[in-house]
Amino acid sequence: MTRKTGERRESVLREEIPEQHLSETSPPPKGRGKKTAPPLSPEERLAIYAEERRAALEALGVAASLARFDTGTSRLEDLRAILKETENRANMLVRFKALTFYLVDESDSSFYQAYCSNLLWERFFEEELQPLIDDRTFAWAISRERCVIVSSKKRTERMLLHVLATPSRTRGMFVAVLDQDKKTIRDHSLSLLSVVMFTAAAALESFFLYKNVRELNAKLVSHIQHLETTEKELARYRNRLEEEVGERTVELQKTNRRLREEIRQHQETERSLAESRERFRALVENSSDVVWEMDGEGRFTYVSPKLEELLGISPEKVLGMRFYDTFDCGEEERERFRIGLEEIKKRGDPFTRVECAWRAADGRRFFFEASGQPFFDEGGTLAGYRGVSRDVTEAKSTLEQMAFQATHDPLTSLPNRALFADRLDMALALARRKDELVAVFFLDLDGFKTVNDSLGHDVGDRLLVSVANRLREQIRDMDTVSRMGGDEFTFIFPGVHDRAETARIAERILAAVAEEIRLESEESAPPLDISVTASIGIAVFPWDGEDVQTLMKRADAALYRAKVLGRNAYRFWNAQDTEVFGEIVDDAMMRKRLEEHLQETREFLDAVINAVGHPIFMKNEERRYVLANDTYCRWIGRPREEILGKLPEDLFSAEDAAAFSRTDLRVLETGESITAEEKIAVKTGANGKPRTVLISKSPYTDAKGRRYVVGSILDITGRKAAEYLLSLGEHNFRAIFDQAANPMVILDPEGHFLAVNSATLRNLGYTREEFLRLTPRDLVPEGHHCLSPENLAVVCTKGSLTYETVQRRRDGTLVPVETHAARIVFDGRPAVLALNRFLKEDGDRNET
Question: Reduced to 3 states, what is the DSSP secondary structure of residue 510?
Answer without folding.
Answer: helix
